[in-house]
Design brief:
The structure is a homodimer of 382-residue chains. The first copy, chain A, is an alpha/beta fold. Chain A is built from 14 helices and 16 strands. In chain A, helix 10 runs parallel beside helix 13 and helix 10 packs antiparallel against helix 14.
Chain lengths: 382, 382
């Protein structure tokens, strides 16, 4: 596939330092960047109707090929028109290859040069995820963007182990590129290399030589801490082509996103808004709210005064009651709020890039949330 | 309180045989009857946002004083502006007194003439539900309609036991009437008497003498079967004043509602649509759907072709996937669909009364659902 024929392309709108604002063009519509993708692991954002997902401001959604392969199977998803149609999402979608889930969920995992062999965590069935198989699975699932299969390893790890996995991921990137043939789906490469700047540079350069319409940075937000994450981004991103989108996988805390956009990242996905929402932890521009705290018991004010989401038509006391009573609606509303917050966050970051005020807006946002400006906070404290 | 000053009144629009169509007028708005109240036990319809509840066509919602008393407590609910405001419901509400929950949920229950004494199923706390306490609790919760505290017993029971409980409920009705003083809240009486026509008649007549702005029929849909239920209604309803609303508590299957409207009932509540929804059982005018059945695996058609609910923008195969994958969104969407079905059902019944075609429409509806016409089906079979 010649690059300028890629079905997924990115064009810049503005830059401010290393930060960019742009537009991702896909067969299922355009999305402004920086963008945040809610995670619809098994073709659903947990507990959230697809129209509510759109209502949060999301323009693109992520689904996971590992989960969909195991259940209901990519054949059924393909038969139902592909993952977007399957879940009723009218815009663009992206699938993760499952490399991380093999690493984190599967049983009896054995990784060889051929691929990753494991047993399903659902029913123990034997599964083979080779680069070629991953491409077939993702083509059948039919998202607009597919991700290469990469070799994910546990961190911390010795440099030699990190290097070996990075180079295997490069060989798998080549195999994915060769096997991938669906012309209306883009395949992104994933930069690996741990926290080693030279390994990251090697990975990025080799991926560029292979040539992808977009590049992800993988293997971060695995416990390295925000300072190390940002440092690694600064060592990696300059080696990626400016005219292609950059996707930081699995990130992150709001402060991580602020820092990463500042380092030149365009795309994000993370389970944090929904997972934290289900656990009664609320993100706001004034900092996090631990909703089960007794101080919120009779508070009639919303989570955030100017938030347009369905949770914010209620008082905090009501939402707290839902959580204490074990009611499903608590996690549902909290997830919708947090997803709305994440969309409002990236919208503010985008506006700041366009206005040429990224540093200033970063400080405002981080200061408002009570996070430290240097590298982003390490997590909610309130 | 003089009856014609009641804050809740009912006026007839049309009759067809014993069936009625009318309007319930309340301090929080009007609702057409026959009406079906979704059950918001703990101030939430399980998993369903309050705006979605309104979207189903519901005009009035039921909450439960037993649950709200235990958690979060009527004081907090009152402090937050009453149950409707607490849950963001803009229309009228009704609270059940908790008599049934004391019977079905509480531990170490002891019922005396004074009241029902028990231990909370949540934390074992000792609780006293006397008629007077129930009135205080429900006044603080602040629904538009409160229900008397009645003495609920297990069925089947010997006639003597049924009669004793019925007469105690009458004495408690008098005490509730005397204790209830909130002028913007109506108190309804509850007819008891098991399946004994003479006991039912006695209960109804005595409640009329005490005088309530509305009358409920309690103690049915407890396993007696649809034929016995309908027969008891026919023995009871004629003893109730025509100009007051009649509320059949805890009913029921769609066919039960069809039969009960035909016997002169105006108001219903039931957990069936939401409980069955959470268990993947779907109600439609073409009969029930057991969504986990493999025949639906790759079905792209909606649950019901002309249903406007959010679930029906998806195919059955997707909804089935959600249930098989244990995803929260399955129960949420199925509940919304079933609630929408129940509202569409009562709307059709109302239209049939107004058009003078109740018998015919009953047969159409029951025939379409595959239920028997005589007394309504006994449950889903498909």
């Amino acid at each position: 596939m010649i690059h300028d024929e890629s079905p997924v392309r990115w064009s810049a709108t503005a830059t401010c330092g290393a930060a960019r604002a742009g537009t991702l063009l896909t067969p299922h519509g355009q999305v402004s960047t920086p963008l945040f993708m809610p995670v619809a692991t098994a073709a659903t954002v947990k507990g959230v109707e697809i129209d509510r997902v759109a209502g949060t401001g999301a323009g693109m959604v992520l689904a996971n090929a590992y989960h969909l392969h195991l259940r209901p199977g990519e054949e059924l998803v393909g038969e139902m028109g592909g993952v977007a149609r399957f879940m009723g999402w009218r815009g663009p979608t992206l699938t993760d290859s499952g490399g991380f889930q093999v690493f984190s969920l599967a049983k009896q995992v054995k990784v060889t040069e051929e691929g990753a062999f494991f047993r399903s965590h659902l029913d123990g069935r034997a599964v083979a995820f080779t680069p070629e198989a991953s491409m077939r699975i993702q083509e059948r699932i039919g998202a607009d963007v597919a991700m290469q299969l990469d070799h994910v390893i546990a961190l911390p790890a010795e440099r030699g182990v990190v290097a070996d996995a990075m180079r295997r991921s490069l060989r798998w990137a080549e195999r994915c590129r060769a096997a991938h043939s669906r012309s209306d789906q883009a395949l992104f490469g994933i930069v690996q290399g741990g926290l080693e700047p030279d390994l990251r540079a090697e990975s990025a350069a080799r991926l560029r030589e292979i040539g992808f319409p977009g590049y992800a940075v993988g293997g971060l937000s695995v416990g390295e801490g925000p300072e190390a994450m940002v440092a690694t981004l600064h060592a990696t991103v300059p080696h990626l082509p400016a005219e292609k989108p950059r996707y930081l996988m699995g990130v992150g805390q709001p402060s991580d996103i602020v820092a990463a956009v500042g380092a030149g990242i365009d795309m994000f996905d993370c389970v944090l808004p929904t997972r934290c929402g289900r656990n009664s932890l609320i993100y706001t521009f004034a900092g996090p709210i631990r909703l089960r705290n007794a101080r919120h018991a009779s508070d009639e004010t919303p989570l955030e005064t100017d938030c347009p989401c369905p949770a914010c038509r209620h008082g905090r006391g009501y939402l707290r009651h839902l959580f204490l009573a074990g009611e499903m609606l608590g996690p549902v509303l909290a997830s919708i709020h947090n997803l709305t917050f994440y969309q409002r966050l990236v919208a503010r970051l985008r506006a700041a890039v366009i206005a040429g005020r990224y540093e200033e807006e970063s400080r405002n946002i981080l200061g408002g949330m009570g996070a430290t400006a240097a590298a982003g906070g390490s997590g909610p404290s309130g």
